[in-house]
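Please, structure for the following, as tokens.
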Amino acid sequence: MKTKFDRMLRILRLLEQESLCSTGRLAEELGVSERSVFRYMNSLQQAFFPIVYDRERKTYAFSDGFHLKKSRLNADEMLALSVARRLLGSLGGIFDVAFESLENKIMDATIPRADLKPFSTLAIPVQADKNGSDLTDLMKDLALACIEQRYVSISYVSLYTEELTKRDIEPYYLFFSSDGFWTLRAFCRLRNGWRTFALDRIRKWKLLDKYFIPRLLVNEIGREVSRGFDSYLDGDPVDVVIQFSPEIRPYVERKIWHSSQRKTEAPDGWLQLEFTTTGLEGMKQWLYRWMPHIRVVAPESLRKTMMEDLDEQRELLRRGGNGKERGK
């Protein structure tokens, strides 16, 4: 067996055959430590395979009634389907119905429902960077590294400074930001802290034969994503209060913009929304789209920063495209 992915597929096949799958036997079968077996089982359970531990028999097994239908779906196809559902199923509606129909057609038993979170270790690549290169291979490797909790070495170009740095990272999940870019959430060993990496800024990458103990559990990942605003996940929690004019109110009320959103009535028919989010950069970028129909009630630091940005923008507009001051 060459890869950890192959070993997880071997576990699925043994479970399907209802073989004795004790920790010791699996470790011997796969040629790994018992600790690695626990890691593989955790990864499979995160991908929504209904695997339980039978304490009486001291073996892992599928839940009652669950089987891989070998004539229609092999183990690696099953693994891909399960993790894909983790992404698209979280969108609800038509995707839930589609996956249920698909699973009923190709499986003996449908994967049990779970508390799906708005994140996934696997995503469907649709974006090419400005040079026209495809992100498919990168996304596949990163998805695998997230599932296997495997270190990745990357060469990354900073968006603002164009500085190229090489760093080892612990990848956790991929997500698609509202500005149209795929992003990786990871713990950066170089900076010794959490970072978000835009995939189109990764120039080289390599999966390492080193594995990490997760700093973030699956349920904690969901909470982290819900606290941040778009792809801005870092920063201390801050309370934000914004008022929107009657002219723009119908557009703002069309959706829930953040999991913490609270709505109240403001004077003169204005709509007031309150949020608790991590940091202010993501919120600030979102608010610019609604100008000039907003009032920043709190915090004062956000209002001050936006006013400074507007003063700079006003000066640029006054000077025009040639950088010279335009006549009155």
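The CA atoms of residues 97 and 174 lie 24 Å apart. Residues 237-319 form a domain with the Alpha-Beta Plaits fold (CATH 3.30.70).
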